[in-house]
Write a structure and sequence with these properties.
Shape: globular
Order of helices and strands: HHHHHHHHHHHHHHHHHHHHHHHH
CATH topology of the largest domain: Na+/H+ antiporter like fold
CATH architecture of the largest domain: Up-down Bundle
Radius of gyration: 25 Å
Distance between the termini: 70 Å
Number of domains: 3
Structural class: mainly alpha
Number of strands: 0
CATH class of the largest domain: Mainly Alpha
Strand content: under 5%
Largest sheet: none
Length: 522
Amino acid sequence: MRLDYQATLLAVPSVELIISAFLGVMLIASLVASRLRLPYTVVLVLAGMLIATLSLSSTIGISVIYNRLVQGGLFVGLVVPPLLFESMINVRTTDVRYVVRPAFILATIGVVISTLVGGLLLWRIADFPPFVSFLFSAIIAPTDVVTVLEIFRRLKVPSRLATLMEMEAAFNDATAIIIFSLILTSFGFSGANLFSDIATFTLKFGGGIVIGLAVAFAMRFIATHIADRFSNTILTVSAVYGSYALAVALGTSGLISVAIVGLYYGSVTLQKYTRPSSRESVRTFWQFAAFLGNSVAFLFVGLSTNLFQVINGLGYIAVAYISVLISRIASVLPVMYFFDPRRKAIPAKWNAVMVLGGMRGAVSIALAASVPIGTLDSNIISTMVLGVAFISITLQGLFLARYISRNFPEEQRSGIEERRLQLYRTIASLETLQAAHERALISDEEFTVQLEEERDKLFEIIEDTGNDDRLDEKLKSDFRKLHAQLLQNKNKDNRPEVSNVESLRKSAEEAIIILTSSAIKS
């Protein structure tokens, strides 16, 4: 018995190995994405799928984290809240007022329409069993907030359109989970109670809003008594996970409560009750947390997708994907027409982005994993969910990115203008820093630290621009050369000399000239 116990301990990878393996996969995916000029998230999905297919996840220990996330039900509560909060603190209040009604309808009635249309298509036309048809449609109905946010970070769309889709993705999980539970426990409406279902939905949706507001108000009160930036950051972490845990414990929607906390904090607390230094610290922390959560989410999708399982179920997946696409059209177009019958406020290309942006991902996979083993055709449901999620994240995501680049040129130009403005600000900061050093207003040590910070900012701007798919190949090539020069200089000894300031300023001016010399892809 003792030998068996020791063998088991040896078979389970250490925590250090698990973390190292996870970070190693992220690093390799980042390097491959940079080398092949592919979206980092797509490479992560492919890397996860390769690990799952080759059965390497147990060897390197990633399966331990994966099993905890799936079987322990930790994924939605651990990974999604940081992504949601970071997105919501950057939403404009004016945009929320404009899109809150259509977002609410899409997240409620839209999910019901999508479930009914998709279920009927699979049942009546594809001849699937009714239970499988409607259960799959309920699982796949919620759009994935992770994928939507990732694409909108890389590409520019009108802020109101981005807010609309982000709010829909944040709020529709509650509706989908209720419908999923209803179908799973009482398919055919035998024993179902309409009033009870309405009360459950009201509790989850309305309760999430109330808890979110309560936590947000408490957060604002505490923020007025905190000056330290690290304490402010800890406050936000406590509020995000605390609001989620409290909402779930009370039987309401944790994601809705987190979204409300983020909206209120970003529009009120962060702007009026937080010091500027703390604002920057909080934003930086949550940008990193969102990046880490994003990486976990897409790796999660890849680890869930076994290539052989997808290949064997290609016929089911093809039919399922077509039904999902049609049901998305059926849920989006009527709602958008209702709010804008004359097509004045909502252009047709917005509808196209909303249809293509209705991608499915980690939340649907987590719901599919929660279907009890032994349930009728659970393997078919799992295969269809994994296949549709994989297609939507990879192929549909790439197609959406190309569509946005071609059909929203003004927004893409505004994104380049923002980058140019950042370069001008860097030049101004360098000139101020140089003048302060020459007048002995700052020490050599402080000068060196601030110079490093400005160089890192410039380095990041030029690196991002060199990987921007909106620019033509010549522009990207010029930025990559400039990036290589900065990297070479960065590896040299950085002494507090004025020449370093002049060198960085010259690089920033050169970047501005490159941006000005050509336009975005036509």
